[in-house]
Amino acid sequence: MFNKIIKRSHRKVAKSDVDFAYAPPGRSSGSVVVINHASRGGAPPNLSQQQQMTSGAAARPPLGTIENLPMFRDVLVLERQNLFMRKLKICCFQFDFSDTLKTVREKEIKRQTLVELVDFIQSGSGKITEANQEEMIQMISLNIFRSLPPASHENTGLENLDPEEDDPYLEPSWPHLQLVYELLLRYVVSSDTDTKVAKRYIDHSFVLRLLDLFDSEDPREREYLKTILHRIYGKFMVHRPFIRKAINNIFYRFIYETGRHNGIGELLEILGSIINGFALPMKEEHKLFLVRALIPLHKPKPIAMYHQQLSYCITQFVEKDYKLADTVIMGLLKYWPVINSQKEVLFIGELEEVLEATQAVEFQRCIVPLFKRIAHSLNSPHFQVAERALFLWNNEHIAGLISQNRNIILPIIFEALEKNIQSHWNHAVHGLTVNVRKTFMEMDAELFEECQRQYAEREAKSSEVEKRRELVWQQLAAAAQGG
User: Fold this and answer.
1) Among 191, 263, 282, 398, which is most exposed with the fewest C-beta within 10 angstroms?
2) pLDDT tens digits, residue range 71-125?
3) Cα-based distances in Å from 168 to 207, 217, 364, 369, 471
4) Are the beta carbons of 124 and 190 closer than 8 angstroms?
5) What is the three-class DSSP state of 94?
6) Roughly how many angstroms between the first and final C-alpha of the chain, as a whole number?
């Protein structure tokens, strides 16, 4: 509770902050108004970005100067483009949402204006001019591109806070921000939007800054960003390689540097759809992405927050190209958790999905290391891990692969099965182990008896060694007493 209070106190906008500012795109004026936001310590915008964001910014106008413009249906068709421009300028005003009682009228005018702009684009009442498209993207940029508030561990200095337990920070300006995102989405998906024109404004710089916003703590914002970026990827073919590379870079930074990012799950959802559309034979670039980015995403601690989406992406690769199955399985074994039982349960579930799409040849390449690891899981004192590993035999396809390679598999896991039957504390695990043991016995009685004989020999030798060791200790103890 104390951490949450500290977090909110740091995120609250100071009373001295500017109530609202106005930066009409393409206009020039003498002064610049800067809205103070908390920063995550990222690099400041470059000169061209600063010029774009503050070009012609005007000082705070007196209250009441934002006029309520007529609706589009109330003016002549020829006047609508000019009215569209005037409405865009109203939406460039930025308001302070830390105090709900401030500038209530102006906030409502901006909200109503944004609703009208969204309806105008969505209805297709008229194709907006190139000049208006440029001004609209600048207005959208002014509203959505901002410094994100600091994460909770930056406020409190506590690095071990669990992101799943921590309450997300909800953007106070969401009533306006949501409509701005909706306007951008409608513009991107509109059949009237010409990609040749739009790509001048929705360029690489715009996409990169859009990707930066995926680190927002507000799940509503990330959901909009996910939908918009996916639509941009689908509509603007020229941006596709750049978007994939930029997402790669976010993953690399998350895996090898920060270990923290709020939007990994949403980015993986987009990639799941992209991977589904990969053509065959698969490009080497995509295979490298699997090996260098997706598989290492199993390493970070907060994997539970995005594992479902990651597992889907991994499975998509194997279903697209079954020859990648052994690469994926060996990658999972490389990052297999040693002491985190909940994470191990996730890994076994993902392993089952991958094995379901695996063919015999690829399966044979990784049998030995795979079933050595499964044997460890079978003997896990955490009953969910052992139970999940035993459930692999309930999958018909996996059971078939095991049956075909029983000569290799049974000798590896026989000892683990016997130990479970003899000493595992959980009754459910004990029962499942008996069923698996019975399956092997019915599958190949001769092989089972041979494994049983070898296990009995190993146990006898182990018992003999233990007796010798005990005898040596007794002799040493007697010698110590006699001395």
Assistant:
1) 191
2) 888 888 889 999 999 999 999 998 888 888 888 999 999 999 999 999 999 987 7
3) 24, 5, 46, 41, 63
4) yes
5) strand
6) 63
